[in-house]
Inverse folding.
């Protein structure tokens, strides 16, 4: 939106937070509750209550693949990306949290256990100098100007980055977040201009559906030392397959609370491993940390600093999880608690589309009592 002066100053001005948060709870027969969180607010609540719930109530919580497939197929006519997949993500995460609690194991243990002893963290921030002093192993700053600002804007971007490079020193990894705002020619010029100043990576420099554009920038920058990354706003394995097959980026950055939850994320991580592509998820806090601990090709976590002056380490999810683990001295260490290891504070939450117990019981009975196949047949 930087091309529209009315909305160029802040992301909140054009409504990045307009929909709000969605929290999903899935409760087992014994009262154990799993929790999943994403964005989407009331519209996503409607999708979960009125559509997705029928594929979950009455099911065995271990059958995460079955439930994910049913939810995904049932929303194809209006889904595939965006809000419906975010809603599926919250349900899926709640199921993994529930499964971990029922088995008394952390989610990373359910995924195969730890593939690394500790997970280092970089910070997305407006103050990379403070991030360095707080112990983060690198930082990422926003790109302040775009193509509509012309050559002067490009020069200002270079001066902006150079200023922070001088403050943090030559050896501190410093990346640039472009938030879908650039064009192929501009991204190419910017990366070349910032390469001498040690730009680590240039992130999400084109709109997410510009797959050919990402390939063009990759070709334009052959021999350049700047790494290319994207994927924050990509959804499901089908979107990531296009990025991975073209090898147009060095790092993919799925948001675990958006792309389809842990069930889909582990497929994407496996696909990335086959092309030697690193996976550094966008934000997601505990939902990405557990996934990253379980896979070798997820070497680094992101912490998005939400504090007013970027000088404090505060919870990513605000007050939703009072016991949310936080980075310390450049690492994120997870407690050995079941599920994702966090407790939901429901004080300020509402349930706008609550269904009756009878409606839930009818849906549960349909799943629990479904007819099993009694005659085998060749399935294809």
């Amino acid at each position: 939106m930087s091309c529209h002066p009315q909305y160029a100053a802040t992301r909140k001005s054009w409504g990045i937070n307009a929909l709000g948060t969605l929290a999903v709870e899935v409760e087992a027969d014994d009262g154990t509750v799993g929790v999943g969180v994403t964005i989407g607010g009331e519209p996503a609540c409607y999708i979960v209550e009125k559509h997705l719930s029928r594929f979950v109530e009455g099911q065995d919580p271990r059958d995460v693949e079955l439930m994910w497939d049913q939810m995904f197929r049932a929303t194809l006519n209006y889904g595939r990306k965006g809000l419906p997949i975010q809603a599926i993500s919250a349900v899926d995460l709640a199921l993994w949290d529930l499964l971990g609690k029922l088995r008394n194991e952390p989610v990373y243990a359910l995924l195969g256990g730890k593939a690394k002893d500790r997970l280092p963290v970089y910070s997305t921030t407006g103050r990379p100098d403070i991030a360095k002093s707080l112990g983060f192993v690198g930082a990422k700053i926003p790109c302040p100007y775009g193509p509509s600002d012309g050559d002067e804007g490009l020069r200002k971007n270079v001066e902006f980055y150079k200023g922070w490079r001088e403050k943090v020193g030559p050896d501190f990894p410093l990346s640039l977040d472009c938030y879908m705002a650039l064009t192929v020619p501009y991204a190419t010029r910017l990366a070349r201009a910032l390469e001498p100043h040690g730009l680590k990576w240039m992130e999400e420099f084109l709109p997410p559906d510009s797959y050919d554009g990402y390939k063009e920038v990759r070709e334009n920058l052959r021999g350049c030392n700047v790494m290319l990354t994207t994927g924050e706003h990509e959804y499901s394995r089908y979107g990531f397959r296009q990025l991975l097959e073209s090898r147009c980026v060095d790092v993919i950055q799925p948001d675990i609370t958006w792309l389809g939850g842990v069930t889909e994320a582990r497929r994407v991580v496996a696909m990335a491993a086959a092309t030697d592509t690193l996976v550094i998820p966008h934000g997601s806090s505990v939902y990405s940390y557990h996934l990253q601990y379980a896979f070798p090709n997820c070497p680094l976590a992101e912490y998005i600093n939400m504090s007013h002056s970027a000088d404090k380490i505060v919870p990513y999810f605000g007050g939703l999880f009072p016991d949310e683990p936080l980075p310390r001295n450049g690492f994120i260490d997870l407690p050995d608690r079941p599920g994702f290891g966090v407790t939901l504070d429901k004080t300020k939450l509402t349930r706008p589309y609550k269904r009756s117990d009878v409606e839930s019981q009818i849906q549960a009975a349909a799943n629990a009592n479904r007819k099993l196949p009694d005659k085998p047949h060749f399935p294809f």
Summary: The radius of gyration is 22 Å.
